[in-house]
Design a protein that fits this description.
By secondary structure, this protein is of the alpha+beta class. Helices cover about 55% and strands about 20% of the residues.
Length: about 450
Amino acid sequence: MTLRARIALAMAVLAGVVAIMVAVTTYVATDHRVRAEVDQYLDSYGQRFQDPEGRQAAAVCSQQPVRRPGVMAPREDEGVQGIAFQCLDASGTVVSTVGVGSLPVNRRDLSIAASGRGKQIRTVQVDGQTWRVETVGISRGGAVLIARDFGETGRVLSSLRRVLLLIVIGASLIAALIGWLIARKATKPLVQLTNAAEEVATTGRLDVAIPPAGKDESGRLARAFATMLAALGQSREQQQQLVQDAGHELRTPLTSLRTNIDTLQRYEDLPAETKALILSDLQTESRELGALVDELVQLATDTYADEPEQTVQLDEIVARVVERARSRTGRQITLDSESVEMVGRPRELARAVNNLVDNATKFSEASSSVEVKVAPGFISVRDHGPGVAPADQEHVFDRFYRSAEARSKPGSGLGLSIVQQIAKNHAGNVSVRNASDGGAIFIVIFDGVVGS
């Protein structure tokens, strides 16, 4: 069942329930009112038989009924329109009937007749006709049953039931129609968004038209959907750019490897010294190619994304990276560290620091030192090399970007891009500036610091 149908059905059910409650209340109130009026009429009529002398009862009960087939009727000049009487003596025997065949007598009627006091009102059926009957005691003994035709009142109530039923059905149908119209208007943006999503799923295109966004929930959904498509489009463009850049960067080492291998295959009698140089070059190119592939995988798949976030000691992670770099390079790397606790992924953080330290050792003299500092919320890595040219500072974190000075150095141009990605993963950022006395300073600022 569609959302429109559910809303229309809900509106119909709600309107039907309300209409039924109103109808039942109206019917019960009307029935109570009609009965009360009839009973009040009978009660006022019955008070005439309360006279101590019993003259009214004697006048009614002494009338001789006119017999017709199956009916006891009063004389034309003595009957009352719509009213019938039945008189009982003290023993409960029917002594006279006026305007009705025979009204049923129950125990309560007999008790009233025997005592001559009290009264009761009830509804009875006589020959298919409905009567409202009040039994009134006579002070000298006996009772009079005063009956009023209740059939017309019943027919009015029956007609009222049919009218109210039609009202309930009509109200439900009108509510269903109104609910469907409201649902149609309210769900129109959702239908348009659904069509747009199906078009994206079918064609793979992300430039589909999104309906205008209002200020309601549908508008928020439309804006969120448009933002999602824009993000997906940007991600696709970045992936395509990464593939193009990776293809370009991979082509150079692969060409070099192919050339060297081809040389070895063609010239089997090369001097040993030349072969050693070619093999050394092959090893260098294969290592750089492997490093490039690893970094591409890191960028494309976010290798450590499945690593759970946890509270870590940032200073301890940096200390381990610095110690490994010292033993690997033999360089002087100083560490100025405070105790810093933060929420993050330890392997990602170690990778970012390692890339910054490798970059610093690559672009500075072996005799110079690398300075690493850890403080609450940030890490800085400084070298004493030539620094980063102002024109290059805004591009050094781009994928595969290598400045003119860096092209003679080993590397893929992805290390700093990975640092930037890891910083973003930790709701932070990375920047670079040149020190006043020479060298570059890379600063990573992290959010999520717990304490220090």
